[in-house]
From TrEMBL, chains A, B:
This is CRISPR-associated endoribonuclease Cas2. The keyword Cell inner membrane does not apply. Its EC number is 3.1.-.-. It comes from Sulfuracidifex tepidarius. CDD domains: Cas2_I_II_III. CRISPR (clustered regularly interspaced short palindromic repeat), is an adaptive immune system that provides protection against mobile genetic elements (viruses, transposable elements and conjugative plasmids). CRISPR clusters contain sequences complementary to antecedent mobile elements and target invading nucleic acids. CRISPR clusters are transcribed and processed into CRISPR RNA (crRNA). Functions as a ssRNA-specific endoribonuclease. Involved in the integration of spacer DNA into the CRISPR cassette. Belongs to the CRISPR-associated endoribonuclease Cas2 protein family. InterPro entries: CRISPR_associated_Cas2, Virulence_VapD/CRISPR_Cas2.
């Protein structure tokens, strides 16, 4: 099992699709940030789906680590509400 | 020394200021993402400056880890050019 932080900068025309893909595998924690535990296999599936979707200046950064314990997270300001609308 | 990944979701009226603050301490790697090595002392200075700037629904997530070796980064799509304009 891995722990992943995924951050994307996607053109408006594709962001809803990327969001939908990411939501199948990870937890939405900020407008363009997903986190979560994931198997190597599922991470590969996620990356393949994203590679088919990304175009032009889109950019997705995936930080992978062996366990969430490798990171401490601090939030400044309001954390995302469930009713967050894109 | 620490390694930090900072991701922000900031209102348009404040994003230039947050960008300016972050650039003093970290490297700009994607539209709303900064990374870099930083001392505990400088991280505290950075966080204090950001806390004074953040309002309303702004949100900044700071992932800190002891070393960059704790994780691997993969980029899908185009990585940010130096001439990137906000």
């Amino acid at each position: 099992m891995l722990y992943v932080i995924l951050v994307y900068d996607i053109d408006e025309t594709r962001v809803a699709k990327v969001l939908k893909i990411c939501r199948k595998y990870l937890t939405w924690v900020q407008r363009s940030v997903f986190e979560g535990e994931i198997t190597e296999g599922n991470l590969e599936l996620l990356l393949n789906e994203l590679r088919k979707t990304v175009r032009d200046k889109d950019n997705i950064m995936i930080y992978r680590t062996s366990t969430k314990k490798n990171f401490k997270v601090e939030v400044i300001g309001e954390s995302m509400k469930d009713d967050f609308i894109l």
